[in-house]
Amino acid sequence: MAWNHHRHLELYYAVSGSGAVLHTFNPRLHADQMAYIANHANDQILFFDLSFLTQVQALAQRNQSIKTYVALTDRAHMPEAHSLPNLHCYEDLLDAETDGFQWPDLDETSASSLCYTSGTTGNPKGVLYSHRSTVLHCYAAALPDALLGSAKDTILPVVPMFHVNAWGLPYMACMVGAKLVLPGPWLDGKSLFELIESEGVTLSAGVPTVWQGLLGHAESHRLGFSTMTRTIIGGSACPLEMIRSFDEDYGVQVIQGWGMTETSPLGTTSAFKGKHLHLPKAQHHAVQAKQGRGVFGIEMKIVDREGAELPWNDQSVGDLMVRGSWVLRAYFKDEGGSPLVDGWFPTGDVARIDADGYMQITDRSKDVIKSGGEWIGSIDLENIAMSHPAVATAACIAARHPKWDERPLLIVVKKTGAEVTAQALLDFFEGKIAKWWTPDDVVFVSSIPLGATGKMLKGELRQQYANHLLGEVAANA
Ligand code: AMP
Fold first, then answer.
1. Does 108 fall in a domain?
2. Pairing label, strands 359-364, 293-294
């Protein structure tokens, strides 16, 4: 349970390389989920950062399997007061050892690491990765049209090492011999900007919400990046405006990536094809706004509700299925039975795919807005809203409607100091989408709830605002 730093990196290699399983543990989860996960995984030794001491002490009260606790620090920083049984100091443990450890020869199909899904519905499920799948995933991630790793790069994974293996970057950076820069707990815009500049970062990776802070800092202080040329953005849809700003204001190319805990995680990246290179910038950005083409080793298809395969025509929208060498076969301990359908993993994402094979997520299937029997993709609507200069963040949810069952409702956080009316925002959609996709109303809020992995918690928004339009319809009747 740790931030991205050198001791965490040592554990990535030392734990798995010694034949044990590295279970990366997300400290942002709810205490109940933490307790469930540690018991379910039968964790034995918990390595943790002192900033998580409170969470770890609470977890210790509810867990029997963890026999040893190790604080990731040196002797001088060990806590004086704590309630943990059998607490060790990481640096003391290392000092007591020689460099002569005999690394075991492991079967490539043995387990190397374990990660739990975010578990927004029900209990989190574990995904156990093998050494083989991790290495194959790493080869694919390093490919030129995937994450393009090179020994010439200085790579900054802001994406946490406690979730989805930090998109494989701790492995990929070492495989290609890149310099790796780790941000620790300092993820605000100012700290990240200074780190990028002082370490000469060329390639960074993070979720859109973190990059919003970085761009906000750069914009308000009129700063530019002197070494960073590429950034990988994934975890949730990257707003078009962020792609444009990185490119036109800062000369940084966004590579959007899509993946899941269940896919190790890399599935697709939005790298250009040769035919795109000479297109105008706006068309570049449209390509980057898609989640992209499958990296070699991953196959995709979209299917309708009956399971029939849909064409790759950029129009048909269906459930996204994937398969490949680093896609799970079953959840840890066979939780929930086999998730596969004829060998394909149903991702729970809804997408379209164009003739060039670029996939675009339109929604999580549970977030799709079903208006009069037709689907409306909330991500398209959020993208448009977020390209309005007054909008910082937007979430589009399904609100109940007496006639259409559900209609889109836009929840918006305005940029600091910016003003816009609900009507002006709704007018902004005109001509950009089919008229019937236009949201029925806008609710302005001061913040949108985020989950433990930086994704918008639309379930919470739905609980709060699902009846918003019913009141409105009643009032207008
Ligand atoms: P997790 O297992 O926590 O990484 O969550 C995986 C889910 O995150 C996917 O199934 C998608 O719904 C979402 N996701 C990841 N990357 C993207 C992306 N680039 N665009 C839209 N959604 C994404």
1. no
2. unpaired
Is 125 a member of any domain? no
Cα separation of 133 and 151, whole Å? 23
Do 51 and 176 lie in one domain? The reply is: no
Residue that finishes a domain, picked among 339, 364, 389: 364
Residue 24 a catalytic site member: no
Do residue 83 and residue 186 come from a single domain? no
Q: Whose CA is nearest to atom 8 of ligand 1?
A: 235
Protein residue whose Cα sits closest to atom 5 of ligand 1:
260
Q: Which domain holds residue 73?
A: 6-100
Identify whether the C-beta of residue 323 lies closer than 8 Å to the C-beta of residue 299: yes
Whether residue 368 contacts residue 361, with contact meaning beta carbons closer than 8 Å, is answered with: no
Output the CA 81–ligand 1 centroid distance in Å: 40
Q: Which of 262, 326, 362, 438 is catalytic?
A: 262
Where does the pLDDT of residue 246 fall: very low under 50, low under 70, confident under 90, or very high at 90 and above? very high
Asked whether residue 119 is domain-assigned, the answer is no
Residues 298-339: tens digit of each pLDDT:
999 999 989 999 999 999 999 999 999 999 999 999 998 999
Tokens of 271: 């790298």
Regarding pTM above 0.85, the answer is: yes
Residue 163 has pLDDT above 70, yes or no: yes
